[in-house]
Amino acid sequence: MKLTWTGSERVESHDTAGIAKGLRRLNDPIWVLETPTGLGLGIGSDDANDPKGPKGPKRPGSSSFDVVAFSPPTPPEALGDPTFATEFDLRFNYIAGAMAHGISSAELVIAMGQAGLLAFYGAAGLPPGEVESSIARIRTTLLDRSFGANLIHSPYEPALEDAHARLFVGQGVRLVSASAFLRVTTPLVRYRLAGIHERDGRVVTPNTLFAKISHLGLAEQFLAPPPEAIVRELVRDGELTESQAALARHIPLAANVTAEADSGGHTDNRPAATLLSTMCAVRDRFRSRYGDDVRLRVGLAGGIGTPEAVAGAFAMGAAYVLTGSINQACVEAGTSDPVRQRLAEATTSDMTMAPAADMFELGVKLQVLQRGTLFSSRAHKLWELYRAHERYDAIPEPARDLLERQVFRMSFAALWEQTRSFWSVRDPERLARAESDPKRQMALAFRWYLGMSSRWANAGDPDRESDYQIWCGPAIGAFNEWVRDSILQPWNGRRVVLVAHNLMVGAAVLTRAHLLRAQGIEIAPEVIDTRPRTRTELEECLV
């Protein structure tokens, strides 16, 4: 049986390149027809404007054909929750997530915003002054376009978490991504409720929280109204009025919850399929609590590095997708060329877990690149020694000697002076507690290495290449395999918007092919072409 594609452009069944091109014409409908010689497909035909397509396209000198399958136009704008893109004035339901220490840089946020896409600035770990300067630059450049910033949980530095939250309110940052939170905190609630008021019978909240989480208990906390105890605390402190406190009972703390699967940095390595479906079930339990004006959404992060992953996320019900690790290898990321090169060479099995600097004492771990660095093994050794001993002097001399020669590259006394100098500015109260407690002193000194290792990586310090701490998840390995032998293989060809467009267009092509397959139409794998393309080639898919 001969398969012929007919319509505004005729393509024979043996022309796989032509069929692939037809699938990529994402703004055209596809009709699958019963013809005298078998099945035929019409792409962008004369009858395409008829949404029902009762008889399908015609060809000269023939009668109408029966339509046996149909794919509507499937542009990337159609993927995900349409109300999400509308609310935040975005082209796609796609976010570049925040990477700490300014890796999600002002340049990255600006590039995304100018393309009509959302990105969060990586404020975590940076001093407020630097954050304020970057936010001012982003606002001045993007004007009224959407952008956000990151607020990370800092259980051992609550003053820094509070300072960032207050800065975001003062600078008018309307979108904030909350990450690594173990519980709801006062700064989160204060940010969310700042400026809450009623207009025409509706509760209006100028500030929007996105909660990036992997625990169901936290999902419930964020989807619920702000905790009453914290709200009352803000009223007592004069930061909320009684009428504002009453309004707070009618809104979720975060209407947009990002299910964080196997991601870089802070992660619980959750499988995406089970995490997303469970988070969606939790969301559905909360829908009845709020009126029609509140839209609860669940997005997916972690492992998003290929068109298949993007298409799968949307097929499972994600309102939006959030990428992270793959953006760190882009030229706009606030890291170094040596790090970008290492990321561009990584495979899906090159990741490991290591102690986190910001939650070292709690034993919290994060996901990092293992290939080409000794950071993970050295960080684990520091954690083991910290757990086993109450003071640095109690560590056996051979182990201390190894630390001072290979890890710290200085004596412990010199290390403590550097640590002391840093914390005397950052948090004098914490320094005072450490100076009277040898265990805390050891923790702060060991955190020096954990903190500096990420800075050495971002700066590309050639003397510390073996100690680079590079946060990333397996998505970067999948991405590298997808872009092999394409324009996106070399890191200097990776631009964050071009990456986003290729992922979304590829996901749309896959979605269209799967839709036809679901109607019983055989689509050969070789005609589903999602390889990366130039900006011009991508725009041709959307004509």
User: Strand tally, please?
Assistant: 18
Indicate the structural class: alpha/beta
Count of domains: 3
**Count of helical regions:** 21
Q: What does this 3D model show about the protein?
A:
With 543 residues, the protein is an alpha/beta fold. The protein contains 21 helices and 18 strands. It has three domains: 4-73 and 498-541, no CATH class; 77-323, Alpha-Beta Barrel (TIM Barrel); 341-467, no CATH class. It has helices spanning 16-24, 82-88, 106-114, 128-142, 158-170, 186-193, 216-223, 228-236, 242-248, 272-286, 307-315, 325-328, 337-345, 375-388, 397-407, 412-426, 428-435, 438-459, 475-482, 496-518, 535-541; strands at residues 4-5, 11-12, 30-35, 38-43, 66-71, 94-96, 118-121, 148-152, 175-179, 197-199, 202-204, 208-213, 256-260, 265-266, 297-301, 321-323, 351-355, 365-369.
